[in-house]
Amino acid sequence: MFGVKMNQKCFQYNLTKVEVQKPDFINGNDDLVIKTDDEAEKVIDVLLSNWKTTTKEFLKNLSISCKRQNLWPWAIALYEKELNLAGHVVSIRQKKEDFSFGAYSLELGQLSVNDNVPPFSFLLVNKKMALADAAIKSLLFEQSWNLLKDKDESLHWICLPSAPPDEWVKKTSEGDDELFLRAIRRAPPIFPVSTVETPRKVLAEDFKSLGGELPIGGGWGYTKDDACIIDKNDPTVDPTVPFDGVGLEYIFVEKRIYEEMIILRPKGEKFSSIKWDLQKQCPLYENGKYFDRLIYKITAFPENDWEELKVEFEGPQGQGHPDFDKEAHERKRQDKIVRLTREFWFDITSFYGQGLVIPDKSTGKKKLLQPESFKFTDKFKKLFDID
């Protein structure tokens, strides 16, 4: 028991393992579910009774949704009413992963009914500081923050905040449907590259600056089975020049990103100001082959949003004007950023362990550092099963 009183507005919840009735390969024999104690359940049941559901049923369905996303909220804020503030909510958050929302009248995971804008009933907060920032900008989040600001971020919470005043809700909800639709339509879906021709042929055709075909085979590298094969023994490779396999990986990463976000997209759905940052590198040895798995975080702007931001920043009322609101511009900029994570798989068997290409400090030219000239760490040896 958490010692909950009937007038309490904030309760701790636990992630509890339960045995599943039908074990499978994915779930195994048990599963995680969100649970509260009996006293907290009584209080929440009163609120949810207006929507013909119970705390147990609501948390059971929410647990399924959280597991699918592999994301369990730090806090859940349950509002008493359904409000037409979906656009307001998505415009306040800086990142999609900061918090999400749902509605009691919709099934969990359902966006809307008949393509209408969904109502707002409850908030799923993943980051405490995101709620703190939102509370500064909006009364909708202020009461939730007042209930949760002193709560331990290592635990999990459910709170029942009061709704903002009706007059505020009425004013804020004006134009909310349009605000929401602009937000979800702003960034068109981004699909993996799929071509009839091989990546080798496509890149040579689309990027004349490459000077011909790259020494690669295989696929676009979204999975291990589709890995891009770096071929040191390809006929296009000059054997008198040190082979820079790692450099080819980086070239392929750049070109695939441009294919995916610019070249192969229709007019009006291309992206601008694209940046990528390597988050993780995972070497793998399997069935006599060496693989390199790179995980990149990519950010970009839909081209129309990018042009709008440029005009605002560089225009006569922009950065040089005394009334230019830098903070408001940055909030708008952050709201319009599209963020995604992509994997790049490479088969590096042909050049693995045959030296590392580095620039010569005196001449700037590439030179080959032979394996005997450097040492592998114990961790690296373990990953690649090296004696």
Short summary of the structure?
This protein folds into two domains: 10-186, no CATH class; 199-384, no CATH class. Helix content is 33%, strand content 26%. It is built from twelve helices and 13 strands.
Describe this structure in words.
- The structure is a single chain.
- By secondary structure, this protein is α+β, with helices and mostly antiparallel strands.
- It folds into two domains: 10-186, no CATH class; 199-384, no CATH class.
- It contains twelve helices and 13 strands.
- The protein has a six-stranded mixed beta sheet, sandwiched between helices.
- The longest helix has 19 residues, at 245-263.
- The chain is globular, with a radius of gyration of 26 Å.
- Residues 1-7, 23-30, 109-115 and 368-374 have low confidence and may be disordered.
Q: What string, H for helix and E for strand, traces the elements in order?
A: EEHHEHEEHHEHHHEEHEEHHEEEH
Biggest sheet descriptor = 6 strands, mixed
List the total number of helices.
12
Assembly state: single chain
